[in-house]
Each structure stands twice: as C-alpha cells, then as structure tokens.
Automatic annotation (TrEMBL):
SUPFAM superfamilies: Porins. It comes from Cephaloticoccus capnophilus. GO terms for molecular function: siderophore uptake transmembrane transporter activity. Residues 53-148 form the TonB-dependent receptor plug domain. This is TonB-dependent receptor plug domain-containing protein. InterPro entries: Beta-barrel_TonB, Beta-barrel_TonB_sf, Plug_dom, Plug_dom_sf, TonB-dep_rcpt-like.
Length: 729
C-alpha cells in the first residue's frame, strides 16, 4: 500500500472477542507465508488499495521481506535486480539510480511518496518492495514511463518481536542494526528501527557512513480506525567515486578497460571532498472503515533535506586519441596516435542546500458485492509540493591539469571561482483527483477496470544571479483501463492501457513552446498460479511510447549552419519487449525466484540509450535443511544476475560534416561489455535467538564494469564476504 497503515487487523490477539474482529482493511496487504518465502498474493501500489496480483491489468512485481533477508541486500538495487525489467544504470554507489524498462530513475519512493536523494536508501526501513511497471496515473502521475519502484516501509505490529545484529566485512560492511516492536496494550504498538554504518568501500579512500533511525507508533482509535506516525531521521556522508577514466584507446568494443597505469582501486577524489546529506521525513497514516462497504485513508508526508557540496568530476583529457568521423558518426583509433600520460582539468562543486517535499493523499474505497458480480470504487485526491535551492561553482580557468599520479589533493594554484556559476531556486505544485472502477463478473472470471485521473501541475523557478523568473502550469486528463479474463482459476490473460502526462516547460531560446510530455503503454500478458499457489509466473509484452521530447534539429549541424538557428524539434522514445518472471516453492524447504527480459528502448532514430541493457536475467534459489536432520538450522542460497551489453557515453548529437553532406547521429564511443555476477549466502540458526549469515557478493571474483558516465567508468568490487550475527527477541 502507499500508506499501508493497517498491517495488523489479521493478527488479532486471543484476548479479543469476535465483536472486535473486523475484516481486513482494503489498504492493507495480507501475506500468505504458507505458499513460499518469495510468493506474494497481493500488492497495493497500483491503485493505492489492495489488489490481487492475478486481477491486475498492469505488471506488478513484489520483493518480499524474506527475499530481502535471504540475499542480505545492502541496496534497493541488490534486491530488484532479480525483477524483470529492472536493471543497473550509471552510478552503482549512490542515488538509488536504476533503469525500469529502460527509463532511468533517481532517488527513492517510500510508501508512494517520491523524493530525490544523493544517498542510497538504507534498507533498515523497508518491509517489502513493490515494482509497478509502465506509466501509472494514480501512483505516479509525474513519474517515469518505465514504472516505479515503491519501497513499502515497516510499520508497527501488534506482537512483541525484534532483533539486533552486527555485520563485519572488508567492504560495504561494518554495520549495526536494531528493530524492536513492543505492544503497549491492545490499542497501542510502538516500533523503532535503526542502523549505523561505517564502511570502507572498494576504491582507495572511498567510504560511506550513515545513521538512520525511525521511531513509529500505531494507535487503534477504535476497532475500525488506526493512526500510524513515523519519523525517519538520517545523517550520512560518503566519498563516492564519480567514475575513473576509461582507456584513451577504448573505442567501440576494443580496449574497454580502466586507463592504462591506474590501479584497479584508483580514486582521484580525496577524503576531504565528500557528499554529506541529512534529513527528516515525517509520514502519517490514518485509515478507517466507515461502514461495512466504505473505507477511508489519509496519508501525509513532509521531508526536509540538506545536501552539502559535491565535487562533480573532471573534464576530458588534454589530448584525445580516438577520432570521430564526421560523415559516418563512428569513432576510431588509428593504432598509432598515443597519449601515455594524459592530464585532466578539475571540475567544480554542486550544492543543493535545501530540498523540501510535502504530500497529502486522501482516498475512499466503496466495495459492493451482489449475487453475480461485485465492484470496487476507489476515488481520492492528492496535493504535492516540492522546492529546492541549487548552486554550482566551477574551477578557475587557470590551465592547471592533473595527471592522476596521486589521489586528489588540490594542486598548488587550484582555486574555485569567487562567484557562483549557477544559483537558483525552484518549486513545483500539483493537484490530483482520480477515480478507479473495478468490476468482477461471472464468479470473478472477468475483471474490468478503468481509471480517470485529473492532474494540475504548476512550476516556477528564479535565477538568483539574474533575478529572472519563469512559471508554467498545465492541466491534463489521463484515462487508463484494462481487462482480465481467467481461463481457469490458475490461468489469467490480461490487457492493460495506462497513460500519464507530464508538464513540459517552454524553451524560448530553443523555439519550444509550453507543452506536455505524454506517455502511454499497451501491455498484454498471461499469469499462471499453479500447485496451490506455490508457482507464480508472468509472461508480459509491453509497448511504451513517450512523445514530445525536445531534441536537436539536425539542420543546425549542417555546414554552414542556418542563421538564425532552426528551432529544436519534438520527438519520441519507445520501449517494447518481453518479460518473464516466476516465484516457485516446490517444497517447504526450497524457494526460487527468477526473471528474463528482452526489449528495445530507442529514440526516434532507433538509437539506444546510454547504460541501458536491453537483455537481462537473474535467478536466486534458497534451500533450508530439515529441522530434524543433522544439518538442521542451515540454509544455503545461490544466485546469478546477467546484464547485457550497453552503450556507454551520452549520445544523440549530430555530426558536422562538410558542406553538401547530411549530418548523422554520433554513435557511442565505446560499449560496456555484458557480465554475469554470482552471489551466495549461508545462514545458520543456532537456537531460537541466535542466527548467523554469511553473504558473499561477486562469488567468482569477476572484473566487470557496472556503469559509466561519458568516458568515465565504474569498476566492480572484488569478491566480498560479509558476516552478520543476529540476536532475535
């Protein structure tokens, strides 16, 4: 649920009488642990209310809390990389950046509230992850066309339980966690989760430190009304590599490696230049069953972040050796030209000193059941606000170059400019009203659904250097709909049409008027739920089109260029392909999850996007030995994740050929090779209180490139065992 405020109506204590027991709230998800550790029956992120996955007209994947625990996931991406359509993107160590059906996502979404963050979300607050794929006008009217990775946070439970753990390891470890839940009485439950991390990362001098604490409580105002409040507080610092230079001789698929002469753990930024972010996030949820048929939810979110300076990298080498063919758009190296001691200019400083997010959602659900049909009507509204202050300062153009012989210490004479290169503030406001109607006929064999969403967007910005201000506003009506037909109780065919439409501000200097950026998706698929629900499988084909994207006008790259320049043009982006995923528990001791994705994400010229792998796959299995055998208490997990070849640097501009020759698109200068990474875990329970877990990432010690930015690449962490000891109470 995007609020999931009622997690406990199905967990009534024995002291409660029958009159106090009420039906499960439509805003609560019911777990079914008896069908397997990785199986989920329901999700609530699609329409803000609980829905059976077999009835959904849109692909929704659920990563359970058991899977998060079994894999020892340190990042959101560590878990969702096993979900079809979700893969790594540019930077592996920050921003929670990932691709969803090829569209790049930054930041985090928690309980349906989206916010930008330079730090990866600490997994201590996450109970489960729901991935809604494709445009969604209810969950994310201003989100990405590829979909939303929604982290459902932990909530208080009406049962006493908890744990404390400590983790040690060479990299990305040294971490303590606590999660304690206490039932004060039959009306009040409190819970506190927290984590402290002080970890070294693989790159020389790289590290991340973070303190996250989230106290919360749930109060049962009445047997049918609950109120939950959370306060998430965090303070983190990190030295995150912005990428190291690829070999100057890297071109197409040759010489794709770290620059010659640099050690694999090279880091050109020193410990004195770090990212630091702190913030507070308050979330409130009130749910009430007003009548037997009508329920209501109110959810609110207020977040404040402070993000201190971040060094943003270096420029190109003083002498590049690869050359661009202005006629073909291809890059090449003549095999002779060399630069054995390249030097680079320094970058500057980015700073977001204030970021605010405010959200309010109010939803109503009316459910009616007749003899031969039933209906669910969901309606609500949302109000959203965000604001930020941003500034940037560059280095002085003093001709100082860095040769990478030592880790970064500003050389003598290196100075920043005494004035801001950019200094601005901006804000957005939006209002949303929506209605969702779901009708079930013929004993739930036929499910029809439709959505209509009204959205009003307003944005404004002020340049603090010029005092110039801009404003824009847009109103859009967005329909969606679909049909589900159950051939048998365990075989479902579905079709869904979903849409969203974003505000596209005017760009007067580029000749672009104020416009909207619509995205729509057609999806068809088949779901199988066999062997009493122990096998759940989805086959899906999707076709996404995003229109009105501003792009270059190739006329401006002709020689000589037109005067005045031709206005930019509107173009589109498409993503289409197949997804397959499954979760299976053939026995109570064995659970396995897997996925495979094959698709295309292209622009109007059929060009691929940087850091988007168009073929991915993953599989993870966990076996727990019998509770009565000689290996009782032991479980073993093994997984593998495949990521296909990807174009590297930012592409898309046109060549500037000689007069009389048409410009063509510039191709990627190099391609990131495909890779397969294997990981494993061993868990051993000593008794009911003590447990140990050994997680080994990159088990085969593969050397691969997880991402790139321009001609800078990130290197993989070598084989990395991490041991966690946990005490449960």
């Amino acid at each position: 649920m995007l609020g999931l405020a009622v997690t406990t109506y199905a967990q009534q204590t024995s002291a409660q009488n029958d009159e106090e027991i009420v039906r499960l709230s439509p805003f609560s998800v019911q777990e079914s642990a008896d069908i397997g550790r990785y199986q989920a029956v329901e999700a609530s992120s699609g329409t803000r209310v609980r829905m059976n996955l077999m009835d959904s007209t849109q692909s929704i994947s659920v990563v359970t809390s058991e899977f998060l625990a079994d894999t020892g996931s340190a990042r959101v991406l560590d878990a969702v990389k096993y979900v079809a359509g979700v893969g790594a993107s540019t930077q592996p160590n920050a921003l929670d950046v990932m691709n969803v059906r090829g569209f790049r996502s930054y930041g985090t979404t928690i309980d349906g509230f989206n916010q930008f963050s330079m730090l990866n979300q600490d997994p201590i607050i996450i109970d489960r992850i729901e991935v809604v794929k494709g445009p969604n006008s209810v969950l994310a009217p201003q989100g990405l066309p590829g979909g939303v990775v929604n982290n459902v946070s932990k909530k208080p439970l009406f049962t006493n339980q908890g744990y404390a753990s400590y983790q040690v390891g060479r990299w990305d470890a040294n971490r303590a966690e606590i999660d304690g839940n206490y039932v004060v009485n039959d009306k009040l439950a409190v819970r506190v989760v927290g984590a402290v991390t002080d970890a070294d990362d693989y790159g020389k001098g790289e590290y991340h430190q973070n303190i996250t604490v989230m106290p919360m409580f749930t109060y049962r105002i009445s047997p049918k009304t609950e109120f939950t409040a959370q306060l998430q507080i965090y303070n983190g610092s990190m030295l995150a590599n912005n990428g190291n230079p690829v070999s100057l001789y890297a071109v197409n698929r040759s010489h794709v490696r770290l620059q010659e002469g640099l050690p694999r753990d090279f880091q050109f930024i020193g410990r004195g230049i770090t990212r630091h972010q702190s913030g507070k996030n308050t979330r409130l949820f009130l749910t009430s069953q007003i009548t037997d048929k009508l329920s209501m939810r109110i959810a609110g979110n207020w977040a404040y972040q402070n993000y201190r300076p971040n060094f943003f990298g270096t420029g190109d080498a003083d002498t590049e050796v690869i050359q661009l063919d202005q006629i073909t758009g291809e890059w090449s190296w003549d095999g002779v030209t060399r630069n054995d001691n390249p030097r680079y200019q320094f970058g500057g400083i980015n700073e977001w000193n204030k970021l605010y997010y405010g959200n309010l959602q109010n939803d109503f659900v009316y459910e009616h059941t007749a003899d031969t049909w039933k209906s669910q009507t969901v309606t609500g509204y949302a109000i959203n606000y965000s604001g930020q202050s941003f500034r940037r300062i560059d280095h002085e153009p003093d001709g100082i170059w860095y040769d990478f012989t030592n880790n970064f210490t500003p050389p003598s004479g290196y100075t920043l400019q005494d004035k801001w290169f950019a200094n601005s503030k901006s804000y957005t406001r939006s209002r949303q009203f929506y209605i969702v109607e779901v009708l079930n006929f013929f004993e739930d064999r036929l499910v029809l659904s439709g959505t209509l969403s009204y959205n009003h967007y307003f944005s404004g910005s002020t340049d603090n250097l010029t005092v110039a201000s801009t404003q824009s506003s847009t109103e859009v009506w967005v329909p969606s709909g679909g049909v589900v037909y159950k051939l048998t109780p365990g075989i479902t065919a579905y079709y869904g049409y979903t849409k969203q439409e974003l505000d596209g501000p005017a760009r007067p200097t580029s000749g672009i008027p104020h416009h909207t950026v619509p995205s729509e998706q057609h999806e068809v698929g088949v779901r199988l739920k066999l062997f009493d629900g122990k096998l759940y499988t989805t086959f899906a084909y999707f076709d996404i089109v995003q229109d009105n994207l501003v792009t270059w006008n190739f006329e401006n790259f002709r020689q000589p260029p037109p005067n005045p320049p031709a206005p930019d043009i509107m173009s589109n982006r498409t993503a289409k392909g197949f997804e397959f995923e499954f979760a299976w528990a053939p026995t109570k001791n064995f659970s396995v999850i897997g996925s495979y994705t094959k698709y295309e994400n292209r622009d109007a010229d059929n060009m691929r996007y940087s850091n988007v792998a168009e073929e991915m796959g993953g599989i993870w299995g966990q076996y727990t030995f019998s509770e009565t055998g000689p290996l009782r208490g032991l479980s073993i997990g093994l997984g593998a994740n495949y990521v296909g070849e990807r174009p590297s640097d930012v592409i898309g501009q046109f060549t500037q050929p000689p007069p009389g020759v048409d410009p063509v698109r510039i191709q990627p200068s190099f391609w990131i090779p495909s890779y397969t990474v294997v990981e494993a875990s061993v868990n051993y329970r000593f008794n009911k209180n003590w447990k140990a877990q050994l997680v080994v990432n990159n088990l085969l010690d593969r050397d691969y490139i997880p991402g790139s930015f321009n001609r800078y690449i990130f290197v993989s962490t070598p084989i990395n065992p991490k041991l966690t000891v946990r005490y449960e109470f």
